[in-house]
Design brief:
binds flavin-adenine dinucleotide; globular; alpha/beta; 6-stranded mixed β-sheet; 9-stranded mixed β-sheet; single chain
């Protein structure tokens, strides 16, 4: 491991998904003459994305702009405001809009924006290692040792776990935190063990792609061609949004009653059929039926989350993205939050006052800035999940479900008020406001 103040810190990033690649790209962009070295360990044989489409919002676009990727994003993305409809009846109706505008694009395009950006640099500070699946690590006051599935090991001065919802970094961190607590407070030690694994949201998502040309041919004014749409119904919801002029990304989610927090039984991804989806939504409004009629292939994904982590950081190790705060897809915010984590963390690590010696304090600043925001968005997303599936326990208190089902406008006004509250996080601060806060904390805490 490196001498604390003489050799530039070696940053290990485990996981080359959207979060890990953004971290590497922002580090390269803001590194100045600091000459950090970055080792990026990815479990897969190359950078890749599962799933087809992604929605991103204004604050994420700001970060892409800061990386010089704003124009490239404009060329690849569509601007798609969102509409929420009550759809589990013949005559559906719109009850909420998010007009400020999301941007949608194919996932692989977003990932390649970051990957291409990394390749553009001369590569002197970044070393990528594929087919390296982290199993666990140990750390001391000087650095971190990582152990991989292929039997190899590597060391670094700090480790960032951007290894997704099933994060081996989070598993190791919370196992170690629990072990340290065991002698003094067994109740807390048990609670910490509960954060090692993600928890099931009690929902499954059927994901599929629709040929937009086919929809245009038969239904040229179909809402799915131009707007993101959340198709809501009791116990289920659909989602659709165009990700290119020819492709609509879509899905159906179904809630298992009482499933929230229960152990997931069976595989997290299984093959499914168009008929499975059609059976779930057969009484729904025509607009959604048209999409379901055009499914070619689909698979069913168990949706898990990482809820309320009490810390994202332990010593020289930090969690980022889904590893820290995987969430339901109902706000389209998971990737955006990973990108925002990466922006703040990379700017902290690239800051001139952060040395190899004070890395643990610097990582704590990241935790203080990012954890309350991202943990709050996990909760908002879960609330939106249950409201979209009209779960009585999550609808505004005192609501009359029968009236709501029949479309009574005063009951829907109450739902709208709750949704305005959920979505208000978009009107909040931008990444550079948080970066300013982080700089103030660095100035007051680093020695
Ligand atoms: C159905 C669905 C729809 C969604 N829609 C949206 C949306 O519209 N908008 C949005 O913002 N978000 C959406 N999300 C969430 C979004 O996909 C995630 O929040 C985002 O991909 C998280 O990025 P990440 O880099 O943290 O993790 P990931 O993208 O999961 O990347 C993790 C990387 O780590 C690698 N890895 C895993 N384990 C190891 C290991 N042990 N060692 C080394 N490498 C490892 C993986 O191979 C992968 O490359 C959706 C999620 C789901 C399930």
């Amino acid at each position: 491991m490196a001498d604390l103040d003489t050799i530039p810190p070696r940053v290990a990033i485990c996981g080359g998904g959207i979060g890990g690649l953004t971290l590497a790209a922002v580090l390269q962009r803001f590194i100045g003459d600091k000459k950090l070295s970055i080792d990026l360990y990815e479990a897969g044989p190359k950078f890749t994305e599962s799933g087809a489409g992604i929605t991103i919002w204004q604050s994420t676009r700001f970060i892409l702009g800061a990386l010089g990727l704003g124009d490239a994003l404009e060329q690849k993305a569509l601007s798609t405001p969102m509409t929420f409809r009550k759809s589990d009846l013949q005559q559906g109706f719109t009850f909420f809009d998010v007009e400020e505008g999301s941007t949608t694009l194919p996932r692989r395009e977003l990932l390649s924006l970051f990957a291409d950006q990394l390749l553009l640099d001369d590569g002197s500070v970044l070393h990528t290692h594929f087919s390296k699946r982290l199993l666990h690590y140990e750390q001391n006051e000087k650095g971190v040792n990582m152990h991989f599935q292929d039997g190899s090991s590597a060391s670094a001065d700090l480790l960032i776990g951007s290894d997704g919802v099933g994060s081996a970094t989070r598993k190791t961190m919370y196992k170690q935190l629990s072990e340290r607590m065991r002698g003094t407070d067994s109740e807390t030690a048990d609670a910490l063990l509960g954060f090692m694994l993600p928890s099931w949201t009690g929902s499954y998502a059927y994901r599929f792609l629709i040929d937009a040309e086919k929809i245009k041919a038969t239904h040229p004014d179909h809402i799915a061609l131009t707007r993101g749409t959340m198709w809501c119904g009791a116990g289920k919801n659909g989602i659709s949004y165009p990700i290119s002029p020819t492709v609509i990304n879509a899905g159906t989610m179904v809630m298992v009653p009482g499933g929230l927090g229960k152990p997931l039984e069976g595989d997290s991804v299984v093959k499914a059929s168009a008929e499975d989806v059609a059976n779930l939504t057969q009484d729904w409004e025509e607009g959604f039926q048209v999409l379901v009629d055009n499914i070619n292939e689909t698979s069913r994904w168990a949706v898990s989350q990482v809820r309320g982590l009490p810390q994202y950081v332990d010593g020289r190790v930090a969690l980022l993205g889904d590893a820290a705060h995987a969430m339901t897809p109902h706000l389209g915010a998971g990737a955006g939050q990973a990108i925002e984590d990466a922006y703040i963390l990379a700017r902290i690590l690239a800051h001139p006052s952060v040395t190899n010696q004070n890395v643990p304090q610097a990582l704590k600043v990241y935790d203080v800035i990012r954890r309350p925001i991202a943990n709050d968005i996990v909760e908002r997303s879960l609330r939106q999940c249950f409201i979209s599936t009209l779960h009585p326990d999550y609808l505004p208190s005192g609501i009359d479900i029968a009236k709501l089902q029949s479309g009574d406008s005063s009951e829907w006004t109450k739902v709208r008020q709750d949704m305005q509250d959920i979505w208000s996080f978009h009107g909040g601060k931008m990444p550079d406001d948080h970066w300013e806060h982080a700089q103030a904390l660095l100035a007051s805490t680093l020695v």
